[in-house]
C-alpha cells in the first residue's frame, strides 16, 4: 500500500526559499515510489493566530476552524506521514508553522514527521529542535534523521542542492518515513491510539 506523504512548506515570508526545497523534496519522494505526495504551502492557507477557547483535542470534529483552513485540515487528516520544510527565524521556526500546528491535534497523532531545514550556518537545526518538542506533545513520532541545508544561498543552484550526497540523504529519510508510516498505520487500524 502506498502511503500519503504531506510536505508542508512552513514559511510564508516574502522571497522565501521553502518552495525550492519543497519542490526538490517532492521530486525525491515521487521518485522514491513509496508515497503519494501532496505539497501544502502555508502561504495559501488562512492561519489566524487567535484560537478558539476549547482546544482542538477536546472539541474534536466540532472545532471551529476557518473555512480557508479546510484544505489544510483535510490534507493533515489524510496523511500517513509528514515532511516539514522550515527555515530558522531567530533560532526557532516561523509563526505560520506554529499556527498551523496549533489549529490541529488528532491529525498529527501517531503519524511520523521528518524535517528538512535550511538557514545560515546552523541550517535551521534550532527550528527543528523546537518542532520536535512541539510535535512530540501532539503524539506525533519525529524521525531522528533529517535534511539540513546550511548556507542554502550558496549551496543550491537551479532548484537543486549542489551537494551530490543530498539525494542519498533524502532517500534515507524517505525510507525511514515509509517504514514508520507503514508501522503506525497498521497500529492505528488495529486499535485507537490511547492518547
Automatic annotation (TrEMBL):
<dbReference type="InterPro" id="IPR050712">
    <property type="entry name" value="NAD(P)H-dep_reductase"/>
</dbReference>
<protein>
    <submittedName>
        <fullName>NAD(P)H-dependent oxidoreductase</fullName>
    </submittedName>
</protein>
<dbReference type="Pfam" id="PF03358">
    <property type="entry name" value="FMN_red"/>
</dbReference>
<dbReference type="InterPro" id="IPR005025">
    <property type="entry name" value="FMN_Rdtase-like_dom"/>
</dbReference>
<feature type="domain" description="NADPH-dependent FMN reductase-like">
    <location>
        <begin position="4"/>
        <end position="150"/>
    </location>
</feature>
<dbReference type="InterPro" id="IPR029039">
    <property type="entry name" value="Flavoprotein-like_sf"/>
</dbReference>
Amino acid at each position: 500500500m502506498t502511503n500519503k506523504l504531506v510536505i508542508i512548506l512552513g514559511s510564508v515570508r516574502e522571497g522565501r526559499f521553502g518552495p525550492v526545497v519543497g519542490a526538490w523534496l517532492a521530486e525525491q519522494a515521487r521518485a522514491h515510489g513509496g508515497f503519494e505526495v501532496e505539497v501544502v504551502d502555508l502561504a495559501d492557507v488562512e492561519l489566524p493566530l487567535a484560537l478558539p477557547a476549547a482546544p482542538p483535542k477536546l472539541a474534536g470534529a466540532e472545532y471551529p476552524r476557518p473555512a480557508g483552513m479546510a484544505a489544510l485540515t483535510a490534507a493533515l487528516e489524510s496523511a500517513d506521514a509528514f515532511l516539514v520544510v522550515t527555515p530558522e527565524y531567530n533560532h526557532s521556526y516561523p509563526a505560520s508553522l506554529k499556527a498551523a500546528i496549533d489549529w490541529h491535534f488528532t491529525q498529527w497523532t501517531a503519524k511520523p514527521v521528518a524535517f528538512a531545514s535550511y538557514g545560515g550556518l546552523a541550517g535551521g537545526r534550532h527550528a527543528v529542535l523546537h518542532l520536535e518538542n512541539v510535535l512530540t506533545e501532539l503524539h506525533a513520532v519525529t524521525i531522528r534523521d533529517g535534511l539540513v541545508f546550511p548556507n542554502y544561498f550558496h549551496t543550491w543552484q537551479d532548484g537543486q542542492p549542489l551537494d551530490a550526497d543530498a539525494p542519498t540523504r533524502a532517500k534515507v529519510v524517505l525510507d525511514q518515513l515509509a517504514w514508520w508510516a507503514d508501522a503506525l498505520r497498521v497500529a492505528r487500524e488495529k486499535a485507537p491510539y490511547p492518547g
